[in-house]
Amino acid sequence: MPGIRAVLFDLDGTLLDTRDAWIAAFDASVAAIGRTASSGSVAAQWIGTPIEVIYERAGFTRDEIARAVPVFLEVEAASVPAGMRAYPGVREMLESLNRWKLAAVTNKSHDTSVAQTYVADDFRGVSSKGEIMDKKKLLSEIKKDTDAYSSTKNGKVDVRLFGGQFAVATGVSTETGKDKAGQTFKRSFRWTDVWVMRKDQWQCVASQAMLVK
Predict the structure, then answer these.
(1) Rounded distance between C-alpha atoms, residue 137 and residue 111, angstroms
(2) Which H/E stretch holds residue 195?
(3) Cα–Cα distance between 134 and 122 in angstroms, integer?
(4) Partners of residue 186 on adjacent β-strands
(5) pLDDT value at 10 more than 70
(6) Most exposed among 32, 60, 98, 173, judged by the fewest C-beta atoms under 10 Å?
(7) Helix axes 19-32, 62-78, angle to 10 degrees
(8) Is the CB of residue 116 less than 8 Å from the CB of residue 21?
């Protein structure tokens, strides 16, 4: 198909069946702040809307939203391995589109659910600042990030597969956006990721990144 440069997908409800995990996370957040009258099965009609807006529509105050959202995000992220699955045929469909750039579009700010799924529990990495990172620290850094991104792109990606169970990927990621102070930025990182196939799922077990500009 000439003229196509990339294919973008919605995530929840399109690539991944996340409804049950979403409802469980919403109910847990409601219970944590003492508003058990609100139901995740009712609020689920707004899935796809920013979570803060969903709480507003459900009648939560600003203070309640501020207390509920962190609980929701934590429970949802923890449920990823067991509570979220790709729909049948998704993996094969994505593989058939590998001639184009692929990306998932999300309205979640600094969402950790993807990293929660694909980063191994025994992950070790080195950040672009030279810090040793385990999975817990990596997820924490994602959540604490205050930058607002307008674009993130991967380029020069090269994947070497060894025996069908082990892979090494290298590439360059470029990010643009604004920092907490409103200053624009554009930066690029050269990275190396190591992946291992475990229980029919690829997991990233090691990574290193270096700021190149």
Answers:
(1) 15
(2) strand 184-198
(3) 7
(4) 176
(5) yes
(6) 98
(7) 130
(8) no
Which amino acid is residue 117, in one-letter code?
A: T
Band of residue 83 on the pLDDT scale cut at 50, 70, 90: low
- What's the mean pLDDT in 16-22? 82
Nearest to 72 by CA among 27, 131, 10, 118: 27
- Tokens encoding 4: 């196509």
DSSP state letter for 8: E
- Amino acid making up residue 10: D
What is the DSSP pairing of strand 201-211 with strand 119-126?
A: parallel
The residues with which 14 forms a beta bridge, in sequence order, are none
- Amino acid in position 35: R
- Annotated catalytic residue 10: yes
Per DSSP, the three-state class of 85 is strand
Q: What pLDDT, on a 0 to 100 scale, did the predictor assign at position 191?
A: 94
Say if CB 40 and CB 54 are below 8 A apart.
Answer: no
φ, ψ dihedrals at 88, nearest 5°: -55, 135
> 2 falls in which pLDDT band (50, 70, 90)?
low
Q: Which tokens in the block code for residue 76?
A: 């949802």
Residues recorded for the chain = 213
3-state secondary structure string across 104-117:
EECCCCCCCHHHHH
Cβ proximity of 6 and 37 under 8 Å: no
**Which listed residue (10, 122, 145, 147) is catalytic?**
10
The structure's pTM equals 0.55
8 Å CB contact between 160 and 167: yes
